[in-house]
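Progress against Task 2.4 (sequence-to-structure conversion) is shown through the following example record, which the project officer requested during the mid-term review.
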Amino acid sequence: MLVLVLLGGKGGQPATCAEGESQFAVGEPLTPRRQASRPTSRGIIQLYDGSTFQGNIYLTWDKEFLIYDRALKQHTSIPLLAVKHIEVVPEEERLEREWRWKQEGSDEKVYTGRTYPWRKYVTTLKLVDGRCVSGDLSALVYLRDDKGKEHKFILHKRQKGKVGTSLAQLKYVKTVVLGVLEAWGEPVAGLRAGIWSEKDTFQVGEPIMVRSAIKNLSLVKQTIWVSGFSNQRFDLERSNGKEVKLSSLGLRARSAFDPRGARDKNASFSLKPGQTFITSQQDLTKLFDLSAPGRYNVRYSYESYHQGWKGKLTSSTLVINVVPKEQQELEDTAGE
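Structure tokens generated for the chain above:
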């Protein structure tokens, strides 16, 4: 039996680029074509199951991302350092039948009764200058973690699994975030908390997206329980130490913070040694009043006293800048 599933939005196309339109112009330079040393970017790779790897990301020596731009209908080569975010979306998947020759020398094939998973992807590269390109990409990406171990990941155009396995067992890279700004706190009982952003300067009114995470530094598996705002919080101050006013949502989130209290929602996650788990992704403008330009300090905290790991984790301070829209436009123009 053949099972066919179409995934995603229109043809699996991510919402990051307008359908049928490329924001990547032919012939526009991004970065120097070749560099004396291998380009490396601090970043995070997240797999389809939520597991993450953090460290220095690089490609095979003297290689770039060679992507087939579906809008322009041609291949485009893009350097690693020109990319800030990669999103991989399953576009089509199915269980394929396994066939074999009926007998040696025969031109007739017979169905073995077994199947294997097959999947097709569409990949979107978001560039540092705001443009993006979507299409078909195969690439080998390396990540060297903080312990010096090198990990290899493959970005697929099409992927075939082993006979007898399911679609759920077909592993793939979901996102790659490059050029991240990190703020990790001190370890506590084998874990530490961190917060990061893809950039440090935002315009007034622009979403300010930050991610928080917990990393297992111990040599044994650790279990954490994530309960939304019940045991997680973000604290934001201006550079003079004054707390920033909370929004209505921020007030509700703060009133819900009660790590020792009852839990309406509670999900457990097991972290293997060295594994990092992204606990939340938040737009700070939804939680705080960031309508005034200035420099802000943000920290993330996690507390749990019920099951699994018990204690309090706090990230170090991540500094972000909020500037008037006119100022950001002038800076962008000056850099051209």
